[in-house]
Amino acid sequence: MKTLTRLALAAAIGLAGSAATAEGIYTPNLSYRTGPFAATGIPIMNGQADYMTMLNARDGGIGGAMIDFEECETGYSTEKGVECYERTKAEAVVTQPWSTGITLQVLPKTNVDMIPILAPGYGFSPMANGKVFQWAFNPPASYWDAASMIMQYIADGDMESLKGKKIVLLHLDHPFGKEPLPVLEAMAEAYDFELVPIPVGLKEMQNQSAQWLQIRRERPDNVVMWGWGAMNAGAITEAVKTKFPMENFIGVWWAGHDEDLKQVGQDGKGYKSISWSMPQPDAPLMADIKEYVVDAGLSQQEDLNSVFYQRGLVISMMLAEAIRAAQEMHGVTEITAAQLRDGLENLNITAERLEELGMTGMVPPFSTSCSNHTGHSGAWMLEWDGEKFVQASDLLAADASFITPLEEEKAAEYAEANAPWPVNESCE
After folding, report:
1. Looking at 191-200, 308-317, 419-428, which range is the least confident one?
2. What pTM was estimated for this model as a whole?
3. Does residue 361 have a pLDDT over 50?
4. What is the CATH number of domain 144-275+380-399?
5. How far is CA 290 from the centre of its chain?
6. Residue 307: pLDDT above 80?
7. What's residue 8's pLDDT?
8. Is 6-141+280-368 assigned to CATH 3.40.50.2300?
9. Rounded mean pLDDT of 274-286?
10. Residue 133: is its pLDDT beyond 90?
């Protein structure tokens, strides 16, 4: 599938010249429209690109500057991702790595290159600690937030009720899939439940018969899935085949893809996914996306109401708001990477601002600061009703008293293991 290159974007917004001379703020995206994760990557990438295309077409960019939103294809490969980072970093004001594996490889480079990482809802959870990770941001919520909220939902708010339960963590055998282990292991010890991690290798994503045979033997109270791409569709199909009660099957926010559930339809009814974004078909933003992007023939997306497409819109909104904040803070139009870092550290996505953006209900309000690079927005539980995902809970919140000390501990361990590591001692 074609990607929206810098040259194509320049043509779409009526700029003259070649890709090399395209003017504007360069915000490359390390996309994955190919490979085993393409089915989930494509709608997210479409959403991200469409939001920036809409701003360029409707507003003339952000604060008078056009946005140059090039994609560098990684296929979700860590090696290719690092290559894309190196290829784009000279002009970029941000890197969007789109893989926990790529994020972990790029993370040490950012202190030297001084380019902020924007990893919305993914990456290394301790990046929330802005004192230690000055150049990394993972708003609006981290994987550890997700684990906490999922367990609170299972416990119906009474964490002591988890005692004696058995929870399977079905996870991709990849840095992303291993992210929740530290917090889930700590919670298992604190609340006396049994955690059974079951990994799924990259070559096993579409054939998980062995994993689901183990699940049948374990007879868990719940299965929590930390899956991505083809793994999710494979797991949901196996769950239906083995007659696992879908109401006891909950995925992380990257395991809530409409197309995966459409494959099983009514048989998937009851499956849930935690989500910090919520599709809002009637949001004013969606009318603008249709007018300025879809009707203009500038979008590759067919279903504008899917969870992942609208999440892509939200992700680019965060970047756009950080650019706007940086422009206002520094009184310039063409910002630098260091100035964008300041903008990312001073996001203030209030309910009032979401209304102004035409995005009420699409993401919970949140803010970032020097010490808090995540925002910990909270999330909703979405449930598959047989045809679509619907809201199944009020806004959930992670247990900060449990998460924050763990973030500080693991951030300190990372800094020590990668010494000398710069720490912002003035950050409170």
Report:
1. 419-428
2. 0.93
3. yes
4. 3.40.50.2300
5. 24
6. yes
7. 40
8. yes
9. 97
10. yes
Q: Which residue has the tokens 């416990």?
A: 155
What angle, rounded to 10 degrees, do the helices at 209-218 and 230-241 form?
50
Alpha-carbon 267 to chain mean position: 27
Residue ranges per structural domain of the chain: 6-141+280-368, 144-275+380-399
Confidence of residue 36 (pLDDT cuts 50, 70, 90): confident
